[in-house]
Design brief:
Helix content of chain B: 25-40%
Largest sheet of chain B: 4 strands, antiparallel
CATH architecture of the largest domain in chain B: Sandwich
Oligomer: heterodimer
Number of domains of chain A: 2
Structural class of chain A: alpha+beta
Largest sheet of chain A: 5 strands, antiparallel
Number of helices of chain A: 4
Order of helices and strands of chain B: HEEEEEEEHHEEEHEH
Number of domains of chain B: 2
Radius of gyration of chain B: 28 Å
Shape of chain B: elongated
Strand order of the largest sheet of chain B: 3-2-5-6
Strand content of chain A: 35-45%
Strand content of chain B: 25-35%
Number of strands of chain B: 11
CATH topology of the largest domain in chain B: Immunoglobulin-like
Radius of gyration of chain A: 27 Å
Structural class of chain B: alpha+beta
Number of helices of chain B: 5
Distance between the termini of chain B: 105 Å
Order of helices and strands of chain A: HEEEEEEEHHEEEEEH
Number of strands of chain A: 12
Chain lengths: 218, 214
């Protein structure tokens, strides 16, 4: 009788231990690592996304902050949707990204964009001269066009502008052309070759879509 | 010494049932939290890699996440597809193209397999076509003709994306082309989302009108 009671206690203890371990494992496995890296040493905040968000919704409750860091950091987060925010700082625009943590660790690379003021400062007459020289070397007929001042994007490594046909009396081929250049190792390269009336994201998938949309709307 | 076979048989049956139940239990436990992915591949003996882990076609149970599924077979081109698995079961079709004479002969000698291949390729094309029309609803409205057919907006094969579709705007004048692009914007369509071709436009930057005429 005594033996049976001992067995019963042992079995019950094991059963409870298994349940507790399973419960703890369930909690542990619902947390995953979010590794955030930034191209600049900027402040990063992670918020829980507001409930009922769609996949593209980027709203959050300021009280739902789950962590913050300067530069790169690992966050251990429970499965769910989060909004990663780089607040607007000197020289940088605010950056928001939604991320779903579910079932596995994730890495998020943040590349905050320069503010418009900073980008305008970077577009110096010297930089414009280099861009014009690149275009002129590639297309001698660019003399037929006026090159608009254009605009730098992201961290100043992208440039887009419109080419306006000088002879507006030509009703057949005086379309405005668009061109996007990319700077690598201080050298400007023409990406959209040749310049076109409409630049396509499908043809140039490596160009950020917002740059393509912006220049197509000009 | 001789055992009675009528006694042995029920024991054997029970043992088999127990083993089967154990196998089912192990398989069941192994599939907890995983999603079914059916990998349809022709030829069926093609080697399939899931994120570089060698396997074969058929039903696979994977944890939700991003996977690259690749199929290779001697004499056939390698094909791969990215899959994003959530809770819902999915199926993908991988159809490596025959590139060697042996592979082409093999398909010729196996008309049933070739027929199945063509059927699957057709289904795949329909699925991709439907997805294209869903993501670019403007295609459902094309073609549209203007000025008694002198100018138009339609769709056709892309010039630079293999197997792709492009918007084709035909108008000989600058203002005509600009009006059609403006119409696209007014329909809440972003022109840069697809390749847009202007066959009547002679780009003065790279071709002179004289060159074009000659």
């Amino acid at each position: 009788m005594e033996l049976n009671r001992k067995k019963l206690v042992l079995v019950s203890t094991i059963f409870v231990a298994v349940i507790v371990l399973w419960f703890l494992y369930t909690i542990y496995s619902s947390y995953h690592r979010l590794h955030i890296t930034t191209t600049s040493n900027t402040l990063v905040r992670v918020y829980e996304a507001s409930r009922g968000d769609g996949s593209t919704e980027l709203s959050y409750d300021p009280d739902s902050l789950v962590g913050e860091a300067t530069g790169s950091k690992d966050f251990r987060l429970r499965d769910g949707r989060y909004i990663v925010v780089v607040p607007k700082q000197q020289d940088y625009k605010e950056l928001r990204k939604a991320i779903l943590i579910k079932g596995q660790d994730k890495t998020l690379k943040l590349e905050p964009e320069f503010s418009d003021e900073k980008l305008n400062k970077l577009l110096t007459p010297d930089e414009l001269a280099k861009i014009t020289a690149t275009l002129s070397a590639k297309y001698p007929r660019i003399r037929l066009y006026s090159i608009s001042p254009g605009k730098l994007y992201k961290q100043g490594q992208w440039y887009a502008t419109t080419l306006l046909y000088k002879d507006q009396s030509d009703i057949f081929n005086s379309d405005t052309l668009r061109v996007i250049l990319h700077k690598k190792d201080s050298v400007w390269n023409i990406v959209t070759d040749p310049p076109e009336i409409i630049i396509s994201k499908v043809v140039y998938p490596d160009i950020p879509g917002d740059i393509v949309d912006d220049i197509n709307d000009r | 010494m001789n055992q009675n076979p009528t006694i042995l048989k029920p024991k054997l049956v029970i043992a088999v049932i127990v083993v089967l139940l154990l196998v089912m239990l192990v398989l069941g436990i192994d599939r907890i939290g995983k999603t079914r992915l059916d990998i349809i591949v022709i030829p069926e003996n093609a080697t399939v890699y899931i994120n570089e882990n060698r396997t074969k076609g058929g039903a696979r149970y994977l944890k939700p996440g991003e996977y690259t599924i690749r199929a290779t077979s001697p004499g056939f081109s390698e094909v791969s597809q990215k899959v994003s698995l959530d809770k819902d079961a999915q199926s993908i079709t991988l159809l490596p193209e025959p590139v060697s004479d042996e592979a082409i002969d093999w398909l010729g000698k196996n008309p049933d397999i070739q027929l199945e291949r063509e059927t699957l390729a057709g289904e795949l094309a329909n699925k991709e076509g439907a997805a294209l029309y869903q993501s670019h609803p403007i295609l459902n409205r094309l073609p549209i003709l203007y000025n008694h057919g002198e100018s138009s907006i339609g769709s056709g094969p892309s010039e630079r994306i293999e197997g792709g579709t492009a918007i084709i705007i035909k108008d000989t004048t600058t203002s005509g082309r600009a009006s059609i692009v403006q119409w696209m914007r007014e329909q809440n369509y972003t022109p840069g989302d697809m390749e847009v071709l202007f066959p009547d436009f002679v780009n003065p930057l790279i071709t002179s009108v004289e060159d074009e005429q000659s």
